[in-house]
Specification:
The protein is an all-alpha fold and about 300 residues long. It has one domain. It contains ten helices and no strands. α5 packs antiparallel against α7. The chain is elongated.
């Protein structure tokens, strides 16, 4: 059938619709598994570099705002700091205390079993004191805080971004980094310092219980032995690492919260990514601190 009397625009549209599409030319690399794998590796590398660049930009912005807050040029929201400190520290005392108590118990049991072969059970106290004070206490506490609070930071900020609350803060003239990130960074750094001390103490108590029950060492002798074997440098190194780990956990959680896009599925993905990356970076920095202080002679 022919259409007569149509406007020129309509006539061109009809002819265009009636013209069969030109066959698409097949790309020579489609179907080649090697080229496909190389393309996937390249895309992953580009995405990783973009993620690193975004994180460095966010990290720099956070440092600038945090520096302005410390210098007094920006407002520090103490109410938010206290609220986050309660959520990070006070509410985590139970689970961290139980975890580190059991870890101290296990370290004492395994150490005693191995040292008994050489008749050196007394050195179990040395193992408990130095391992928990310098390494295990702070590291396991940081991992627990990363899984508990780092994920909460990412989920909270991600949900706020989906609900456009972040845009609302910018609309009314508030800096989201100042309002959301800085209080969490300060609270997490301070609370992890206290949690590390508390967790190490719980681990020492757990080890002391095992030493008392299995080796027959009374608590007074155990405490006196701990005072001999735990060096001030071990305690100081643990306390130096604690706020650094808290800063890393808070930065990772907040960064991935700001990277949430689209829907609730993105919140779950970014929350998982925040926990995994925070734990990974904490362990990397722990290894760095171990080598660094060993080079300085604090073995």
């Amino acid at each position: 059938a022919a259409l007569a009397g149509a406007a020129p625009e309509i006539d061109r549209l009809i002819r265009a619709m009636a013209t069969p599409p030109r066959p698409a030319q097949r790309r020579p690399d489609i179907g080649n598994p090697f080229v496909h794998r190389v393309a996937r590796i390249g895309a992953a590398l580009v995405a990783a570099l973009h993620n690193v660049g975004s994180f460095l930009a966010f990290f720099g912005q956070t440092l600038v705002v945090l520096g302005g807050t410390i210098a007094g040029r920006r407002r520090l929201r103490w109410h938010a700091v206290v609220h986050q400190g309660e959520a990070i520290g006070i509410n985590a005392l139970g689970i961290i205390g139980l975890l580190l108590f059991l870890v101290g118990l296990v370290v004492a049991q395994q150490g005693a079993v191995q040292l008994r072969q050489f008749g050196a059970e007394i050195f179990t106290v040395n193992l408990i004191g130095r391992a928990t004070t310098r390494e295990l206490g702070i590291l396991l506490t940081a991992i627990m805080v990363a899984g508990r609070s780092g994920s909460a930071f990412a989920a909270q900020i991600g949900s706020m971004k989906i609900n456009e609350e972040i845009d609302a803060l910018r609309t009314i003239g508030l800096d989201p980094v100042e309002v959301l990130v800085v209080p969490r960074v300060i609270a997490c750094s301070l609370m992890l310092l206290g949690l590390a001390f508390y967790g190490g103490l719980c681990a020492l108590v757990g080890g002391g219980v095992y030493v008392w029950v299995d080796l027959g060492m009374p608590p007074a002798s155990y405490v006196a032995r701990l005072r001999e074997v735990i060096l001030q440098s071990d305690f100081a190194i643990g306390m130096i690492k604690a706020p650094v780990f808290g800063f890393i956990i808070a930065i990772m959680g907040c960064y991935h919260g700001f990277q949430v896009t689209g829907n609730a599925e993105s919140v779950g993905q970014r929350t998982t990514q925040a926990v995994v990356e925070a734990i990974f970076v904490v362990i990397v920095f722990d290894a760095f601190f171990a080598f660094f202080f060993s080079m300085l002679g604090y073995n």
